[in-house]
Specification:
By secondary structure, the protein is mainly alpha-helical. The chain has one domain (2-149). Helix content is 88%, strand content 0%. It is built from five helices and no strands. The protein has helices spanning 2-26, 29-56, 63-87, 91-117, 121-149. Helix 1 runs parallel beside helix 5, helix 2 packs antiparallel against helix 3 (63-87) and helix 3 packs antiparallel against helix 4. The longest helix is centred in the C-terminal third of the chain and has 29 residues, at 121-149. It is globular, with a radius of gyration of 16 Å. 40% of the residues are buried.
Length: 152
């Protein structure tokens, strides 16, 4: 379960932030989708490799299983979050849909996390939401600022 949560959490936090930044920097659904896929796939592979390396040092964990679960759960998040940019041509329509999908994923993972960790659902949901929205806000600022500074 920990490997799945790691992949999903990191995918949500990193990719929502990246997609918001890409949306305001590029304003092209093709560029946002392509950048999101490249970023997401690279990050999923990186997370899988990191999970493998970490699990090797934790003797009770299966390193290959940890890597696979982390990487696959990350890739699933990538597919769901990038899909609106692939399907829709208007990035400013795709953006709120992407956020809605992220909220749904946060809700689902928070629900299972709250059961697994015996924590309150709203607490788990709030923690994931704060991190996702916080990173998205920072990357929005970066994407907007870079768009202003760079002739893209």
């Amino acid at each position: 379960m920990a490997s799945i949560v790691l992949g999903v959490n990191d995918g949500l936090i990193e990719l929502t932030g990246a997609l918001v930044g890409f949306t305001f920097a590029f304003k092209s659904h093709d560029l946002v989708a392509l950048s999101g896929l490249i970023t997401g796939i690279a990050a999923a592979l990186s997370m899988a490799a990191s999970a493998f390396m970490q699990a090797r040092h934790e003797h009770e964990k299966n390193a290959v299983q940890a890597a696979a679960l982390t990487g696959i759960s990350y890739l699933i998040v990538v597919v769901f979050l990038v899909a609106p940019y692939v399907i829709l041509q208007d990035v400013f329509v795709a953006l709120p849909i992407m956020f809605s999908i992220a909220l749904l994923i946060i809700g689902i993972i928070s629900y299972f996390n709250s059961i697994y960790l015996k924590q309150k659902f709203l607490r788990e949901f709030g923690i994931m939401l704060v991190f996702s929205i916080g990173v998205a806000a920072v990357t929005f600022a970066i994407g907007s600022g870079l768009r202003f500074l760079l002739p893209v």
